[in-house]
Specification:
2 copies of one chain form a homodimer.
Chain A: H1 6-9, H2 11-19, E1 28-30, E2 37-42, E3 45-55, H3 67-84, E4 88-99, H4 104-120, E5 124-133, E6 138-147, E7 163-167, H5 172-185, H6 193-207, H7 213-221, E8 227-230, H8 235-246, E9 249-253, H9 261-270, H10 274-280, E10 287-291, H11 296-305, E11 311-318, E12 323-327, E13 330-333, H12 340-343
Parallel strand pairs in A: 4-5, 9-12
Antiparallel strand pairs in A: 1-2, 2-3, 3-6, 4-6, 7-10, 7-11, 8-10, 9-11, 12-13
Helix pairs in contact in A: 3-4, 3-7, 5-6
């Protein structure tokens, strides 16, 4: 008889096991299970808080992720969670768990990446703590943000007939990761200048993702979105999460999923289907959101103020509780997504 | 030429290296360097936030710290930080970094300890995240609390002539830790019933410390304390930290330091000086605070409402920037404290 261990149970079951034990007082507006928690400490002002831990060897590989990118990513994943709630970033705490052998220069580099991203989004690093560790490097960031009541975005507001939208392009980060991993394992790559530039662009998307803070705030402030989340775990996972939280389904149009030219060409060269790969991929930190047909004008306002980030309609919310992908060959149920926890570095 | 690594630099130098790069906007009332950060998101209401990471093998040893105590301690250290600021606990986030081989029962146990302490202090666990790890078990808790402007307690308000006070008793936790460690390494202990009970009491103080939440809130609300901090790193460290932050010194009366009968007897049996050991020890999570002589009446109000926790005067704040210990043999400068970072499990 074996004991049940963490590796057997998996992330979602573990989270479920924890959250099932929690009861929340009335001032907890959004508890566990969304991109971030929302509390209402004073009437009329919401506080949004989120924490995300990055573990070396699980979430990043120090052999090809430079220190500044580790710092950037550790904050970016939290900013992306705040953006997904429509919150304005405010303050952060940084917990560092450091191997004894880590060079101090690497810490400086992590701070460079973290602080320059923080400055761009007017977020202040106000505290934290440092511990040493016999294990891997761990960077745990907690971030808080502000939102107004009834302007906060959750995953649970989608209704049948709402349109499904995403920001930016999907899939680049995974291509970038694969490219970085190949540079590590394989022989030195020989690419022409165009392919080299393509690979570099995707690598940047993996190493230094730009959280969609401004669009998230605009979507909340203008009440343009009925549900929203960020795509840390991929588009397929995202659509399923919104559908589950809202008690609905969705029909996605495969041909409209915004895949960059760089990612599409990379998958072609590998002989892989770009759509399937991009549906399953992750680390994009784009926003997925739903919009009531009657609120299209609000979305146009958001689009005009969002500084040129593309927003693409990729499907529609349905009553039937399943997620369908339509393409030229017909329609099929969405392939089962991965669980982040089991997957490690993809 | 060797690169400077984490182990060479030490905790304080690392923290200094980070905080020297930070600039804080005006709404950051207390930045890094105190027990917790304080921000003023809305005029008139302060938010206190703190994070503390506990690493297996560094902050606790799973061979003699049971899961519920790991969970209790992980939250207690944060509650103690909030108490030291005079803040009322509100919400917490839990980041778990779990080895694959960890049994799910251990996670349940950690939650038992954490949630029962949270319930007693009316704090809600509102979110967090889980990651797997190839390394040690890591429990990182972020806690937020509320305080009113000008009621928040920092380390920086002590003035010459203020009295130096501590809550509870000092040194029990370290005795408890030593006792637990001995149970691990040595032959099975043979103690009489009295000694066994003494050891057990000290072990409980180490395993399940009671953060002084109520007294912290009372000290802040009644404006009884001019400076305050918690004794996570020991009394000697605490007095020095308040002295440094306030730009003052202190004279401590060794004979008045409240050492429990249990701890005193334990040190006697070891042939060690109890005062020196208790000054250098840590993990007590008592509060150290200073009181203006004119505010003694306020302190009496706190004492009356504090539910029987003893409060002891142990010295006085001085103008000369040094920390002096007076005992029957005369006076001496305080022995140099340890650095938590270098020390690991004491």
């Amino acid at each position: 008889l074996h004991a049940t261990t963490v590796s057997i149970l998996g992330e979602r079951a573990l989270i479920q096991r924890i959250t099932s034990r929690l009861s929340q007082p009335s001032w907890v507006v959004v508890g566990p299970g969304d991109d971030a928690a929302v509390i209402e400490p004073e009437r009329g002002a919401l506080e949004v808080i989120t924490a995300d831990v990055q573990v070396e060897g699980v979430h990043f590989d120090r052999r090809f992720v430079p220190p500044d990118a580790i710092g950037h990513r550790a904050l970016a994943v939290n900013l992306s969670d705040l953006a997904a709630m429509g919150a304005s970033p405010r303050a952060a705490l940084l917990s560092l768990v450091l191997p004894d052998t880590l060079e101090v220069e690497a810490i400086d580099g992590m701070l460079d990446g973290l602080l320059s991203l923080a400055a761009r989004h007017r977020l202040s690093l106000v505290g934290g703590n440092i511990a040493r560790s016999p294990g891997p490097l761990i960077v745990d960031v907690t971030a808080t943000g502000a939102a107004r009541p009834r302007r906060v975005l959750t995953r649970a507001g989608a209704r049948p007939g709402d349109e499904l939208w995403v920001t930016g392009t999907i899939g680049d980060a995974i291509v970038g990761l694969r490219s970085l991993q190949r540079g590590l394992d394989g022989p030195p790559r020989r690419l022409d200048a165009v392919a080299e530039r393509r690979a570099h662009q995707c690598e940047q998307r993996y190493l230094r993702p730009e959280p969609r803070v401004r669009i998230g705030i605009l979507l909340g402030r203008n009440r343009a979105a009925s549900a929203c989340m960020d795509l840390s775990d991929g588009l397929a996972d995202g659509v399923r999460q919104i559908a589950e939280a809202s008690g609905v389904g969705a029909v996605m149009d495969a041909s409209s999923v915004p895949i960059s030219e760089e990612a599409r060409r990379w998958y072609e060269c590998q002989g892989l289907d770009a759509i399937d790969a991009c549906l399953a991929g992750g680390d994009d930190y784009e926003l997925l959101f739903t919009v009531r047909p009657a609120h299209r004008a609000r979305l146009r306002v958001v689009q005009k103020e969002s500084g040129g980030v593309p927003i693409t309609r990729i499907g529609i919310v349905s009553r039937e509780r399943q997620v369908i992908v339509r393409d030229a060959n017909g329609q099929r149920e969405l392939p089962l997504g991965f669980e982040h926890f089991r997957r490690d570095i993809r």
